[in-house]
Automatic annotation (TrEMBL):
It comes from Ursus americanus. Gene3D superfamilies: Tetratricopeptide repeat domain (1.25.40.10). It comes from the Eukaryota. This is N-alpha-acetyltransferase 25, NatB auxiliary subunit. Belongs to the MDM20/NAA25 family. The gene is NAA25. One of its GO terms (cellular component) is NatB complex.
Length: 685
């Protein structure tokens, strides 16, 4: 009986489908649009006589109107006015949490000019207290609260909040938070695992604040959004949306430290490590938290590797118990995860991270490459079969269609992600080819050189370098018209834009040209360093301002310096025996006329310049740490008289987390750079 509404909807949809396909495979159509209308009316009549209200018949009526309108039929008037039908539906079911999601799919039936009138009509039947000068009109019970909450959600969905100016939006935020605080009274008996009835008020307020931040650049709004979310989380510790939004905002601000615990508390299960894992792994390394990044990558890879083992076991069990029809499903699922875009990204980034932290520090580059079983000529990423398993609708959204995540956004995001993966994969393969170029000196026309495969290895690297340049040019083309067009709650942009704008792309490409371009590397490095200068966190006009892009530029700088040092190490391995050979000839022939080529002096000058550059960056990072520690954030909070005691407490928590995360990132970046500085001191010919 409870499933009757769904059977009705299915029956009506099937009937209606045949109305518009006369040449159905099932034969002649026996139902017309008029009969479909009559069928629904009969169901509604039956429902009106029942003591239990059923949603199905009413939704079927709206669905039929939508389909008739889409197909250009003129019979929709027989079913009534959509606005009135939705109003009547709200009167019957407005106190149910599902009312909003039921009506959400039909709001496009409303004319744009009628939206305000429709919302006012709904508000007119919501039982609220009489408003006074000091108090809002508030609901007296949970059912009334649910009705009002449904109206607020529809208000945002219809775009009425988006047409407001900044002050009006901030006024809406204040009202929503007052309603949220009032709604907490109804949830005092809720368990910690349950959500508060008024949580959506808080979420909606945060969404409006994000609008203000994105549209005006006013960071006060984003700090307030974080404060509200942290406060909401204390009342609803199990609210996944609060946690996801905190993860997203902290990452955008460049603070990764608080994100690790937040993501862990989401308690993601199985496939979710693939569908929402990108929210964590995208920012792990790029914000300088190398230890946390390593842990995050390991966690993700553990899931993918265990899946390969588990699905094999499922297939064996299916054979064993004769469930043969399940075997194709298990194989398809295994392939879906093996070909996951996220899997390929994490695997590539993990290997680059391991090289960054260990190569030529604790182990040689050659040993690191060998332990990873990397070969420059091998590409193990299934480019043609890659599957985008990301859940890009993981965030609740009440945005109108023109502002929400669209299929176009998803398509563009996939192209961007794939191109960035290609750039990173080619970079990794180029690095893996450096140790294989170390070989004994032989005449250029020697057959032995060809037999040893050295020429072919050089050709492979040259080919990879050409592919890298093509990929970078394609990436720039992708970004030029599209960057920053994703909705905030939609796809997460890749690091590609920062890679290009920081100058690291050109510097890394130049480094792979080896000796021919090696004299320009220290100059390029200085140019990259100039984009890393500035304060991460500063107080400006009484407001706290963040510059997370500087942190990402520093991370790119460290990565670029590491690549340059690996290339320089190769150059040293070629130049040192060449110099020794010349010195031996000079001693043997006892001639003073043999002049040493200028490349040796130039290389040593270059290494000295590189040491100076890295030392300057290390000093700059120390200065950033000193500035961060000296910031008196508590005084800034106390000066803001508009905040309540509770809000001040959570503001202090939020700002403290961001400050601590920045310090942690700078500490790890600084320590890694010091190790790289020690490496440069060993570059001698």
């Amino acid at each position: 009986y409870l499933l009757l509404p769904y059977f009705i909807i299915i029956r009506v949809q099937d009937t209606f489908f045949h109305v518009f396909i006369p040449s159905s495979l099932e034969g002649e159509v026996h139902y017309s649009a008029e009969e479909a209308v009559k069928f629904i009316e009969d169901r509604i009549t039956e429902e009106s006589k029942s003591s239990r209200h059923l949603r199905g018949p009413h939704l079927a009526k709206l669905e039929l109107i939508r389909r008739l309108r889409r197909q250009g039929f003129n019979d929709e008037y027989k079913l009534g006015d959509p606005e009135e039908l939705m109003f009547q539906y709200f009167k019957k079911f407005g106190d149910k949490p599902c009312c909003f999601t039921d009506l959400k799919v039909f709001v496009d039936l409303l004319p744009a000019t009628q939206c305000t009138k429709f919302i006012n009509q709904l508000l007119g039947v919501v039982p609220l207290s009489t408003p006074t000068e000091d108090e809002l009109a508030l609901p007296a019970d949970v059912r009334a609260l649910q009705r009002h909450l449904c109206v607020v959600q529809l208000t945002r969905l219809l775009g009425l909040y988006h047409t407001m100016d900044k002050n009006q939006k901030l006024s809406v935020v204040r009202e929503l938070m007052l309603r949220y605080q009032h709604g907490l009274e109804f949830g005092k008996s809720c368990l910690k695992t349950e959500l508060q009835f008024s949580d959506y008020y808080c979420l909606l307020a945060v969404h409006v604040l994000i609008d203000v931040w994105r549209e005006t650049g006013d960071e006060t709004a984003v700090w307030q959004a974080l404060t509200l979310l942290e406060e909401g989380l204390t009342h609803s510790p199990s609210n996944a949306q609060f946690k996801l939004l905190l993860v997203r905002i902290y990452c955008v601000l460049g603070a990764f430290e608080p994100v690790v615990d937040l993501y862990s508390s989401l308690d993601a299960k199985h496939i979710q490590h693939d569908t929402i894992g990108y929210l964590l792994t995208r920012y792990a390394e790029s914000l300088g938290q190398y230890a946390a990044a390593s842990q995050s990558c390991n966690f993700a890879l553990r899931f993918f590797h265990s899946n390969q083992k588990d699905t094999s076991e499922y297939i064996i069990q299916a054979y064993k118990y004769g469930a043969f029809e399940k075997i194709p499903e298990f194989i398809a699922f295994r392939n879906r995860l093996n070909n996951s875009l996220h899997f390929a990204q994490v695997r590539t980034e993990r290997m680059l991270l391991d090289l960054l932290l260990e190569a030529n520090i604790s182990t040689s580059l050659a040993e690191s490459i060998k332990s990873m079983n990397l070969r420059p000529e091998e590409d193990d990423i299934p480019w043609e079969a890659l599957r985008d398993n990301r859940d890009l609708n993981v965030f609740f959204s009440w945005d109108p269609k023109d502002r929400d995540v669209s299929e176009e956004h998803k398509k563009l995001s996939l192209e961007e992600e794939t191109m960035w993966l290609r750039i990173r994969s080619l970079t990794l393969r180029l690095i893996s080819g450096l140790p294989s170029l170390n070989h004994p000196m032989e005449p250029r026309n020697s057959e032995k050189t060809t037999e040893n495969g050295v020429s072919s290895r050089i050709d492979i690297l040259r080919l990879l370098l050409q592919q890298l340049e093509v990929a970078m040019e394609t990436g720039k083309t992708l970004l030029s018209p599209l960057f920053f067009q994703y909705p905030f709650l939609g796809p997460v942009p890749t690091r590609m834009a920062g890679f290009f704008s920081s100058g690291c792309s050109q510097c890394q490409t130049s480094s792979f040209y080896l000796v021919s371009d090696i004299y320009e590397l220290d100059t390029s490095g200085l140019d990259v360093f100039s984009r890393c200068k500035g304060d991460l966190l500063e107080v400006k006009d009484g407001n706290l301002k963040t510059r997370p892009a500087l942190l990402e530029n520093l991370v790119f700088f460290v990565e670029t310096i590491s690549i340059i040092l690996w290339v320089s190490s190769y150059c040293e391995s070629v130049l040192r025996p060449y110099k020794l050979n010349l010195q031996k000839k000079k001693k043997k022939k006892k001639e003073t006329s043999i002049i040493m080529p200028p490349v040796f002096t130039s290389f040593q000058d270059y290494v000295t310049g590189l040491q100076t550059l890295i030392s300057n960056v290390v000093d700059h990072i120390k200065g950033l740490e000193t500035h961060l520690i000296a910031l008196k954030l508590e005084e800034l909070i106390l000066e803001d008289t508009s905040l309540s005691l509770e809000e001040r407490k959570f503001s202090k928590t939020v700002q403290g987390k961001v400050q601590s995360s920045y310090l942690h990132s700078l500490l790890e970046i600084g320590e890694l750079l010091k190790k790289r500085l020690e490496t440069t001191k060993k570059l001698k010919i």
